[in-house]
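WARN retry 2 of 3 for item q-0093 after timeout on previous attempt; input resubmitted unchanged.
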Amino acid sequence: MDWVYLSPHLDDAVLSCGGLIWEQLHSKQTVQIWSICAGDPPSGVLSPLAESLHARWQTGREAMKLRRAEDQAACKFLGANIRHFNFPDCIYRLVTLPPSGTVSFLYASEAALFGTLNTAETLLFQEVRAQIETHLPPQVQVISPMALGNHVDHQLVRLAAEALGKPLWYYADYPYIGQQGEHLAALNADGWEVRVFLISAQGLIAWQDAITAYSSQTGTFWEDEDQMRLAIERYCSQSGGVRLWQNSRQYQLLRIS
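OK item q-0093 returned
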């Protein structure tokens, strides 16, 4: 079976499903990880939010170049093939307001990152869908983020995946899943089916090792590597492995508003 994981950012698929990706590859299946919002920031001024995140990550304006290199290293631990798309992260997206030419950042605060997609993103959504469709091989299994946590880039990717009009698998966005237990419990009543994939000891270690490659990001979630390894081990144990969901009704739960 051939699998394509849609990853909103340059770490989401590995954070959420790294152990499963390793298991699939070691059972002679083909796996690709497509990172959608992996493009460089635009030239010119950046928002204070983007500048503050660059400082937190200790990357400066080379953030996306360094993050792409981290993703390449992470996927080498797993053995997965990657594709990096050129769409910018939401922290870089802006509009120019006529007639003054004033620049307005679409997501200028951390709260905005977890709000609703801006109506100005309709064209971007169409472009993301078209690019995914253009590169998608036939007969491939597509795995979309569920968009737990409501991050706007996760919403964008899920919307684009659902607009393909084909059956999808969904993964729970880690670490946001830790705050969404009630949401997941309600899925059964809405026609969702879950499948649990067992992760071996070797798969767990490969998953943890891959996450260490994201050195600019892991400090956002954990104090150190030991804490990360323990958190992933607990998550895998509590979930019984890695869970993927399908919905036989395949209806859209999200929209740009």
